[in-house]
Amino acid sequence: MEENIIRHALWSSWSKETAHLEVKESRNAINRTVWQCAVTSMLVQEILWGEIIKAEVPNYWYSHFWNKVDWKEIDFTSDQFTDWPPIFEEKKIYDLNRLMSNNNTNERYWILKKDFERFIKDYENIESEVSICRLCPKVSHFKHDSIYFWKNCSLLFIWEAPARGWWRITWKAWKNEKWKIIPSWRVLQKLLDLLDINLFDVTFTEAIKCFPQDRKILPEAMANCSPIMYKQIKLLDPNALITLWDHATRAFLWNEYKKFWDVVWKEFEVKVGEKIYKLFPIYHPSPISPKSYTWNVPIFNRLKEYI
Question: N or C: where does the chain have the smaller number of CB atoms within 10 Å of the terminal CB?
Fold first, then answer.
């Protein structure tokens, strides 16, 4: 299973029910990795095999667990160390059965496993729905999946629609056919630098799942694709949504505004399923527009509290 799909499945499956007993009621809803390491390492070993590693972390006053697979160390909960770099002592291979012997850890593991498997099943069902949909005329369909999974789980960027020859065909996000970063995405990287996030760690999808050959059908395509996009948001469960330009924003706000500049710079609350999400519309990061960087800076500064 692809590592970043595992990462997102874990992110969506972590909860207070899977957190360590000591922090169950006070867990950090923004940084979900906190106190999830033991059960996570158990599940990752089941999926990827390898070994579980345990170490004491004296500058955080607790133990930490992660995995080693094919000589590579993988730590899906390393983001919990936010105050200062962790110091690992007494590092050793740890037996899964010893973790399983703790009743509370065992119970939390089975909850995580159940929710993880539900994520994978729901993800496959959504992609199947995308692949067989034929509601819109004059669109080109793609074989690749419609979510670009990468390391960052806290923010979900939503573009308008796939470009004809972009990542859904080449699987090369952010780069052109010569493997050079597209100028617009260089601007986006400058904005992401404010959040200490690498462009190549960004997770995104599009509001419209197929390539519209005629832009006149965008409103119809948006209406047809919105139920699928809402399912994707419920599945990924990010801390915040960032919509790129007008049509992606209208997938949430519809006819609540006339001009895009009426809503950009503003923060919205949108309901998807039973949950309220923060929505931040941004200007397209075009290198030829003075708004692409300067006018987006205040938005990205506000995003710091959601990562």
Answer: N
Q: Assess whether 111 and 199 both reside in one domain.
A: no
**DSSP secondary structure string, 99-126?**
HHTSHHHHHHHHHHHHHHHHHHHHHHHH
The reply to whether 216 and 284 lie within a common domain is yes
Cα of 170 vs its chain's centroid, Å: 21
The CA-CA-CA angle for residues 180, 2, 123, to 5°, reads: 105
Residue 247 lies inside a defined structural domain of this protein: yes
Domain that holds residue 24: 3-115
Final residue belonging to a domain, choices 115, 150, 170: 115
Beta bridge partners of 279: 241, 268
The helix/strand/coil state of 93 is strand
**pLDDT, tens digit, for every residue of 242-273?**
999 888 999 999 888 999 989 998 999 999 99
Give which of 72, 66, 61, 58 is closest to 92, Cα–Cα: 66
| pLDDT at 34 > cutoff 80 | yes
Do residues 70 and 104 share a domain? yes
Per-residue pLDDT, 162? 84
In 3-state terms, what secondary structure has residue 89?
strand
Report the sign of the C-alpha dihedral through residues 172, 174, 176, 180, in that order: negative
**Does any domain span residue 127?**
no
Question: Does residue 267 contact residue 243 with C-beta atoms inside 8 Å?
Answer: no
- pLDDT > 90: what percent of the chain? 73
Question: Are 275 and 164 found together in one domain?
Answer: yes
Query: Is there a single domain that holds both residue 27 and residue 164?
Result: no
Q: Give which of 162, 160, 167 is closest to 139, Cα–Cα.
A: 162
Is residue 198 domain-shared with residue 286, that is, in the same domain? yes
Taking the model in full, what pTM does it have? Answer: 0.93
pLDDT for residue 230 is more than 80:
yes
Residues 106 and 185 in one domain: no
- Give the pLDDT score at 283: 92
Helices (H), ranges, the chain: 3-13, 37-48, 96-100, 103-132, 167-170, 183-193, 218-236, 245-253, 291-294, 297-302
